Amino acid sequence: MSYDGVGLGSAMRSAALLTAGALAVHLLAGCGSGDDGNKPLAGQDIAPAARHEIADGGTLRWAVDAMPQTLNTFQVDADAGTARIAQAVLPAMFRMDERGRPQLDENYLESARVVETEPKQVVVYRLNQQAVWSDGRTIDAEDFAAQWRALSGKDSAYWSARNAGYDRIQKVERGASSREVRVTFARPYADWRSLFSPLYPKDVMGAADSFNDGARTQLKVTAGPFTVRKVDDKNKDVVLARNPRWWGRPAKLSEIVLHEVPRDKRVAALADGSVDVADIDPADVPRITAAGARAGSPFPGASDSRTAATALRVWALEHGTESEDTDQELRALKKENEALAARLRQQQALGAFQVRKSLEPAYTQLALNGEGGPLADERVRHAVAHALNRKEIAELVLKPLGLPASPVGSHLALAGQSAYADSSDALGGQDTAQALSLLADAGWVPGPAGEKAGEKKDAKKEEKKSGAAGAQSSSDGGDDSDDGTYIVGVHGPETDDGDSDDDRTSAEDRRDGDRDDRNGTERPAPGDRRYTDGRLGPGGAPGAYAPKGTAAPAGAASGPLAKDGKPLTLRFVVPAGPGTDTLGKVAERITAMLKRIGITTEINKVSDESYFRDHIASGQYDLALYSWPSSAFPATDARPIYAKPVPAADGSLNVQQNYTRVGTDQIDQLFDQAVATLDEDEQRGLLRRADARIWAAAGSIPLYQRPQLTAVRKDLANVGAFGFRTPVYEDMGFLKKGVKR
């Protein structure tokens, strides 16, 4: 799990899932075709080039959020850097294609298939005849067996993050030859292709000490196009070098250096040459894009500042008016000029880069904590869901980046993957009237403190007595930030398709308004607006104010809701720090949508370090935004996220990774059936039924697929925003001189 723009780290549900989803290390092969019309929303953007166009040699410097704490992806503190290293240096039996669907990796396997289903499921792996570890030893059944024993969960000496799948294996043995591995399962396991990816050598998996400690800082034996040459904690580098024993296509690069660079330092690191590739935040995109477009062009400005400073100095000397104030102003101008010159140099350096963008195999959701408080009531959770315009939220994040802005329709897969189907109809879309009805049914009514019926009558009498005084008070001014005024076209009624008049306000209109400000045109105050367009529709002019006291139309709350003297207020926890601007904007938009149905939110911005540990995992929130990676194996990987919480022996609640604390027995049963069937069509059907029930439970609302934004040197090929596809490290490199793009 992660939240946008913040390092994955301990927030991931497990290291194994990180490799399966966020960086797509292990993948399915032989999957059914599923829905052939199901396409990814965005493809790769890696500047592809043929190998003959790429120069031999060179060092690629790649920014990572932090130095990996371990090189063992099966440990709890493995992170994105751990997974990236594993992709480049270790075997993976299956890898992801561009549609997020797993394919057999022929560098390691000739074939892998189920050969028996009765009385036990048996899978036979036939290994590539050339596949060897970097020490020259053949990859064989002993490596598979050692990994099974380490991850089976039977030996508590191994500190593994999870054992899903490995705990279903009965035995691992040599097959008909030394190049065959025969795996027998005690229980049927549909996601058998998720196993042994990555595969570690028996040197790592064969003893608890080497698993727990040895593989944290070094991998002496590997079997990929690269090896781990050095882990340099002082310089924050992990150096990967060509593997001389690699039997596949030789790596074009001599080295790949993973260098720690915080998100807020990425642009500076690109400009000063510290890194060649870096994932960046949306706020950095315009600057790099503009620099790339103007590469080779002169940047105006620095000379203008120098001229101004010089002119001021000359004038002061000629007129004998040089003073301490003049010197201070000159020093300030000099400092400003130096800063501007440095920025311009940095901008010129950024001209060598371009932003490559796609959609990450992960989605951001709104989590609703159902353990206690108002959201323990399913009706309130449904009301929150019906208040959201998910299309608008997706456009807020993705449209400015030029990426497809479609709301995510599944908790268990993303568009392009075989398990994907839009099951959001099980909950329904934006429907303000339905939201208000649900809240009323749950006892939440308009009023300053949710008055009883008798209290409302008394309040109405008071209102009649003080009506004139109230009107006078209104005209005299005061705090009218939320005075109940109904604004035509802004608080308009819902249309048949669930969109409000506000929703129909075009982006072009808003941009036109922005241009008015930029051109210096003074905008009239709301009360002074004049509308002369005779073509206004029935809804009136957007922004036209009705007299105070005019009732809002059906489909909008008349004010904050309350029950039994308590207002309907939800704690909305949001991370603060570099890279979290997008989440802040999304939280503000959701807050505005909830306000329309009378729900008040209190946004609580907390530090990155405490966001997951002290709030999400501990349940100290009502609403929160965070992301889950998409997995090729949702029957296995998604189950702990949506499992029904159960009481633990010590009286606490065992939630696994279900941080919303919302689950049902039926959802659990569907996952159990899906993971045990070997019929792929049947599994897809079961997963889609499970997803529909997850939608109906309304513990989490998928919003949008996360943007993947990567700044890359223009002369680098086959690297960038990879989307679903697993990176092909041996094909990355710098273009030969003279090759035109």
Automatic annotation (TrEMBL):
One protein family per Pfam: SBP_bac_5
Compositionally biased residues, Low complexity: 467-476, 543-562
Residue spans of biased composition, Basic and acidic residues class: 452-466, 503-533
Name of the featured protein: ABC transporter family substrate-binding protein
Cleaved signal peptide residues: none
Region (Disordered): 447-565
Coiled-coil ranges per UniProt: 323-350
Keywords of this entry: Coiled coil
Domain spans labelled Solute-binding protein family: 116-292, 342-453
Gene3D superfamilies: Dipeptide-binding Protein, Domain 1, Dipeptide-binding Protein, Domain 3, Periplasmic binding protein-like II
Organism encoding this protein: Streptomyces thermogriseus
